[in-house]
C-alpha cells in the first residue's frame, strides 16, 4: 500500500496510526502542502485525489481511498485485528461521537484551506486567525473532556478510533499553542497513546518528510 501523506497533516497522522496499529506495511509518498504553492494542487496528485487533500491510500490492487475516516473504516473491516471499535453498539456510538467531534467539528474549521481562506479571501490578520483556531479546539475539547472515561485510553483499556483521531488533534493544538491545562483527561490519553509504538512511529517528527 502507498500512503500519500504530509508529516504535519493530522488527517494523514490518523491513518498512519491505524496502519501501524494493524501492523500493515506501507510506503509513503510525501505531498508537501505548502511548497510550490501546495503539491496537493498539482495535476498528478489531483489525478489521485480530486479533492487535493491528504491522506490518500493506494491499495496494492491500485484502487485509491480518500478521507481518513473512510480509509480507517476500510482498514478496520478488511484487517479487523486489533479492532478499532468496541463490540457493543452503544459503546461504538460513543467512540464514533468522540472521533467525529475531532474529525467533523474541530478539524475542518481549522484546516489549512480554511485558515488560508480566512487570510486571503476574508483578509483576516494572524491574531484573528489564531483566535479562530483556538476557539474551535477549546470548544471541541471542552465537550470531549466530559465525554471521555480514560483508562488509560479514551474509552478504557483498548485503543479505539477515538484515540486515533484525538492524538493528532492534540498535536495540532500544541503546535498552535492552544492552552491545554483545562483538559487533563485529554492530555493523559495523549501521553498513554504516545507510549505505544504504533502512535510513536506515526508522530509527525518521526516521518521521513519531517522538517
Ligand atoms: N476530512 C478529510 C480532511 C483531509 C484534509 O483536509 N487534509 C488536509 C491536511 S490535514 C489537507 O490536505 N489540506 C490541504 C489544503 O488545505 O490545501 C480527512 O479526514 O481525510
Q: Fraction of residues in helices?
A: 40-55%
Which sequence of SSEs, written as H and E, runs from N to C?
EHEHEEHHHHEEHHH
Mean pLDDT: 97
Report the uncertain regions: none
Strand line-up of the largest beta sheet? 2-1-3-4
Named once each, the bound ligands are: glutathione
Distance linking N and C termini:
24 Å
**Count of DSSP E strands?**
6
Tell me the Rg in angstroms: 17 Å
Number of helices: 9
Largest sheet, described in full? 4 strands, mixed
Alpha-beta classification: alpha/beta
Strand fraction = 5-15%
| Coarse shape | globular
Task: Tell me what you see in this structure.
This protein is α/β, with parallel strands linked by helices. It has helices at residues 10-21, 43-46, 68-78, 89-110, 112-120, 126-147, 161-175, 184-194, 197-202; strands spanning 2-5, 27-30, 56-58, 64-66, 149-150, 155-156. β1, α1 (10-21) and β2 form a beta-alpha-beta unit. α1 (10-21) runs parallel beside α3 (68-78), α1 (10-21) runs antiparallel to α7 (161-175) and α7 (161-175) crosses α8. It is globular and about 45 Å long. The mean pLDDT is 97. Glutathione binds at residues 9-11, 33, 38, 40, 53-55, 67-69, 103, 111-113.
